[in-house]
């Protein structure tokens, strides 16, 4: 997997998943693409280290999360998003994804992050804690509360849709 | 597994535009070299790499609806388009608003980019309109005799057309269904969109790929059709991301210096490597005595270019950017 060809193959296959994960974090498709691209750019800069890591996927997912947290600080200083995030179309799941991202938007940032890390990216509590910079217990409680609230919010969105 | 977890899993079916990985690598390397030349610090490297990375996916053409300009809707929306309740308040949507009176365009069209807060408010308001009942017939509305608004909305893969009637027969019509409302919350927003703005600065200009073929001979000056002689006013609009941040109109020596500065910029065949949303961009409208207007976009903040829509220069000089900043400060 070493070298440019290895990176190209890795990036091309992981790209959709990284964008979708970033979309759940940012609730904005363009920002998700930005986050995923910057993450892969950083992965390429340190590709030798990434490709020889025990779990390159976990490594890059961590970059995505870190880039999201870094970019979020920058976005706070810019004009906030006043509307809803882009919802990718193309199949019958548009309404469902729209409802999901709207519901996610209503979660506090910590809960949203914990839910996405644990239940979409399937990070362990330890890895999620490392990514969030908090204790594993915090991840557990945030993910649990976040998922409960997400169920409520998602139900409301689906009812209104 | 419950609904929410299922929904999270099904996010994996969301379509994603492909990534040009080779372009990403090349751009990162090039900007890393630039960063090393420009500064010994790592921050610029990261900024340059990030700015370059932004553009790689954005260069992908929209998949189904090409870059054809949105047209004002005709007399009625075409039958068969999707209902407005399928609209999503999309950050990248393009909204075109036209006012029609007696079938003649009265005001507009005005194009709003997705980052324009007004575009989002319009889409959100349209989305909030619920189809209550399938209403057939005109219900006493004489559509030919009243003014209405036509709204076209471009998404990544399709275009929605909606008619909004604010007078006499308030309603929203997308061709397949019609909703009659005594008051339509969308209409004031459309009116706001059509209200006079600072000389066309409502929408951030699109960053089209230059159509100038690489095999064409070098042509100096992105604004070679813009001569200082006879220029009576220069309108400068500054965007931060998609948002219009400041406008100014200058007519004194600053206007002449801006036009001279634009004329001094050389052109290249460099590909666009700019994010549509992240950097500062100036839109410069030079108005001549005869009323004709030349529009030029100038960008900086990690993505420096000058474009007149058909050709693109890769470097916007500091002096020109300073002049534009000075103009909007004065304004």
Give an overview of the whole structure.
The complex is a heterodimer of chains A (161) and B (331). With 161 residues, chain A is mainly alpha-helical. Helices cover 78% and strands 0% of the residues of chain A. With 331 residues, chain B is of the alpha+beta class. In chain B, 27% of the residues lie in helices and 23% in strands. Chain B has seven helices and twelve strands. Chain B has helices spanning 3-10, 21-38, 42-58, 117-128, 186-194, 253-263, 318-330; strands spanning 94-101, 104-112, 148-154, 159-165, 171-173, 178-180, 231-240, 243-250, 280-288, 293-299, 305-307, 312-313. In chain B, the strands form two sheets. A six-stranded antiparallel beta sheet of chain B has the order 2-1-3-4-5-6, with helices on one face. In chain B, a hairpin with a 5-residue loop joins strand 10 and strand 11. The longest helix of chain B has 18 residues, at 21-38. The interface between A and B is large, with 54 and 54 residues.
Give the SSE layout.
The complex is a heterodimer of chains A (161) and B (331).
Chain A: H1 3-26, H2 29-45, H3 47-51, H4 56-77, H5 94-105, H6 109-120, H7 125-132, H8 136-160
Helix pairs in contact in A: 1-2, 1-4, 2-4, 5-8, 6-8, 7-8
Chain B: H1 3-10, H2 21-38, H3 42-58, E1 94-101, E2 104-112, H4 117-128, E3 148-154, E4 159-165, E5 171-173, E6 178-180, H5 186-194, E7 231-240, E8 243-250, H6 253-263, E9 280-288, E10 293-299, E11 305-307, E12 312-313, H7 318-330
Antiparallel strand pairs in B: 1-2, 1-3, 3-4, 4-5, 5-6, 7-8, 7-9, 9-10, 10-11, 11-12
Helix pairs in contact in B: 2-3, 4-5, 6-7
């Amino acid at each position: 997997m070493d070298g440019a060809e290895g990176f190209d193959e890795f990036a091309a296959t992981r790209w959709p998943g990284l964008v979708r994960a970033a979309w759940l974090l940012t609730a904005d498709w363009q920002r998700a693409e930005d986050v995923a691209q910057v993450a892969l750019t950083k992965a390429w800069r340190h590709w030798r280290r990434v490709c020889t890591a025990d779990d390159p996927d976990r490594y890059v997912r961590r970059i995505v999360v870190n880039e999201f947290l870094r970019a979020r600080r920058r976005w706070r200083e810019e004009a906030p998003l006043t509307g809803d995030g882009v919802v990718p179309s193309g199949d019958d799941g548009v309404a469902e994804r729209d409802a999901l991202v709207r519901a996610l938007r209503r979660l506090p940032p910590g809960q949203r992050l914990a839910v996405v890390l644990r239940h979409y990216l399937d990070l362990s509590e330890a890895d999620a804690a490392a990514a969030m910079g908090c204790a594993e217990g915090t991840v557990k409680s945030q993910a649990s509360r976040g998922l409960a609230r997400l169920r409520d919010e998602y139900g409301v969105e689906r009812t209104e849709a | 597994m419950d609904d929410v977890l299922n929904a999270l899993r099904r996010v994996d079916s969301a379509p994603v535009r492909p990534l040009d990985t080779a372009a990403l690598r090349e751009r990162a390397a090039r900007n890393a070299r630039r960063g090393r030349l420009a500064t010994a610090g790592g921050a610029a490297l990261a900024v340059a790499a990030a700015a370059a990375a932004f553009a790689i996916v954005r260069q992908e053409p929209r998949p189904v609806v090409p870059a054809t300009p949105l047209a004002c809707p005709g007399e009625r929306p075409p039958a068969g388009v999707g209902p407005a309740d399928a609209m999503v308040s999309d950050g990248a949507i393009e909204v075109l608003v036209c006012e029609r009176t007696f079938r003649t365009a009265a005001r507009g069209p005005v194009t709003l980019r997705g980052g324009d807060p007004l575009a989002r408010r319009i889409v959100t308001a349209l989305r909030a309109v619920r189809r209550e009942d399938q209403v057939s017939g005109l219900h006493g509305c004489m559509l030919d005799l009243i003014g209405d608004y036509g709204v076209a909305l471009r998404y990544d893969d399709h275009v929605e057309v909606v008619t909004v009637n604010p007078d006499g027969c308030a309603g929203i019509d997308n061709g397949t269904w019609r909703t009659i409302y005594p008051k339509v919350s969308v209409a004031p927003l459309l009116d706001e969109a059509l209200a006079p703005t600072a000389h066309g600065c409502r929408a951030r200009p699109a960053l089209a790929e230059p159509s100038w073929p690489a095999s064409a001979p070098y042509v100096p000056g992105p604004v070679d059709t813009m001569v200082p002689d006879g220029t009576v006013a220069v309108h400068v609009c500054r965007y931060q991301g998609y948002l219009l941040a400041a406008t100014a109109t200058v007519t004194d020596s600053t206007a002449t210096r801006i036009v001279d500065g634009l004329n001094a910029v050389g052109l290249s065949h460099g590909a666009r490597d700019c994010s549509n949303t992240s950097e500062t961009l100036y839109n410069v409208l030079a108005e001549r005595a005869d009323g004709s207007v030349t529009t030029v976009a100038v960008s900086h903040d990690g993505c420096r270019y000058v474009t007149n829509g058909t050709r693109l220069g890769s470097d916007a000089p500091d002096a020109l950017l300073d002049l534009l900043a000075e103009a909007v400060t004065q304004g």
